[in-house]
Amino acid sequence: MAVNAKKMFNKADNLVAVTGLTKSGGSETEDKPVGTIYRFYFSGISLTD
Known about the structure:
By secondary structure, this protein is of the alpha+beta class. The chain has one domain. It has one helix spanning 2-8; strands at 14-20, 37-43. The chain has a two-stranded antiparallel sheet. The longest helix has 7 residues, at 2-8.
């Protein structure tokens, strides 16, 4: 996610992304219940392939 965001917004100094499980019927498990949120934030980094 971070690499693709940097490719799309290559002039950005900061990147923020949020994803998660918002409703039942998806990929929830006991370890990943509905309401689980994943987020990332990068500031001033260089990502390369």
